[in-house]
Amino acid sequence: MNAPDKIDAARLELLLSELRLPGIKLIWTALAETADKEGWPAARFLAALAEQEMVERSRRRFERHLEEARLPPGKTLDAFDFDAVPMISKAQVQALAAGDAWLEKGANLLCFGPPGGGKSHLAAALGMALIEKGWRVLFTRTTDLVQKLQIARRDLALEAAIAKLDKYHLLILDDLAYVTKDQAETSVLFELISARYERRSMLITANQPFGEWGKIFPDQAMTLAAIDRLVHHATILEMNVDSYRRKEAVDKARGVGRPPTRATIKGSA
Ligand code: ADP
Ligand code: MG
Fold it and tell me: pLDDT > 90: what percent of the chain?
């Protein structure tokens, strides 16, 4: 590069920063070199730059959305063993992972089942898949969110706090049942459910289906109203399986998957 080129390059870098074009900033020198060498028409060079900017932007958007979602790490659909939950259809879960059919209309997904059955894993895995599709998701333990909303209510900012959650197409509330019964605490949950009704989706995991929800909300009328709104447009996945953790531990102890040793053959005879 001769001296005026160097000045152009420095100026271009500044302009690209100012214009917020990180993708082009990353790639322009390499692309310009190729374009010069191969004698690209100017329009082709420009199109290639624009395309790189698009790619880089969507990569950054994905990373931002992944970070804000606070998903527990490592819980993906690929790592989910569907054989362990025969009552759940893999095809149905894959359809849910696309998002369009339910997130667009603010429908809900409810996962019920005993501890260790894979509810949180499946919820996080769906969240991850949806973020890959461009949706925005927040994963939170129900108790944590209730606590935050409760603080907001004390500061007379509950409405604003709930409105702020609107940016998430899907709110994953993990472990609904662990919310303690306390008048002020649990009515914030009701406010949240009402505010999102038919607009923004929720994915709720719980150990018990509705029979026990009277313990979560302050009174029966509110419990019924909350359930009514949640199930109006909802898919319900019942995961009534033994704890995966326990099964894994038992399999390990038994040595399932390993060829039988002389000792085990003798033992079973
Ligand atoms: P729950 O939320 O229903 O109590 P978790 O999702 O926390 O259960 O599952 C407990 C552990 O077992 C987690 O480490 C999870 O990754 C694993 N696990 C549960 N079900 C499955 C499954 N079907 N395939 C793979 N891992 C599973
Ligand atoms: Mg869980």
Answer: 73
